[in-house]
Amino acid sequence: MIAANPQSGLDCSVLVLNKHYMAIRIIRARRAFALLCKEMAEVVSFEKGSFSNYDFQSWCEVSEFKRSFNPDGHDWVSTVNFHIAVPRIIRLLFYDRLPRTEVKFNRRNIFARDENKCQYCGGKFATNELSLDHIVPKSLGGESTWENLVCSCTDCNVKKGGRTPKQARMTLIKKPLKPKRNPLIHVHLGHKRYQSWKQFLDNAYWSVELK
Asked: I need a labelling partner for 56 at 20 to 30 A (CA). Which of 7, 91, 124, 129 fits?
């Protein structure tokens, strides 16, 4: 049984591939280990420029080697008897599924699409300092769509009020569009630990569902 502790790495993100090596979602390491222990998945590890596959037992053995020679290159989970490296990627062995092609329309994905930048002044703000603005206000018939919602800072939101940008003499820094894939992927790829995901995410057809 894997023992959780604040430094265990169980909350790290793991990319899940289906049996055809197509990216389908991101899960927490805790769920990834459950799938590995049940022999429902295998680890896909990037090593020396190529990918290698390991079942749970062999990954435990490889982890001992990694712990001795490159402990800082991995996140770790401690058990009663040994340490195991948190995998970055796992591949499902029996569950066959094609990726989602639709990006969920929600607040989190809009903030990620706009990179937490006010789409009027271009400033970058913390999430709690931004709001979602209807380009064409609801009072004028504007709808809640990818193309009509953007991030806006407090000052710009107050300045624009219940008007269109043209009426308020304001300009959008870019035209809002519906993302082709989940914009939160870019957030993960900004971290060195998740660079091994890139090969499986380069094709814009792949869309990863966050769980």
From this structure: 7
Domain residue ranges of the chain, discontinuous segments joined by +: 13-100+183-210, 107-160
**Which residues does residue 134 pair with via DSSP β-bridges, in sequence order?**
149
Query: For each of the chain's 211 residues, which pLDDT tens digit applies?
Result: 444 444 458 888 898 888 888 888 888 899 999 999 999 999 999 877 788 999 999 999 999 888 877 777 788 887 777 789 999 999 999 866 555 557 788 888 899 899 999 999 999 999 889 999 999 999 999 999 999 999 999 999 999 999 999 999 999 999 999 987 666 565 555 566 666 777 676 543 344 444 4
> What's the whole-model pTM score?
0.53
Backbone φ and ψ of 109, nearest 5°: -75, -30
Which of 1, 3, 25 lies closest to 14, judged by CA?
Answer: 25
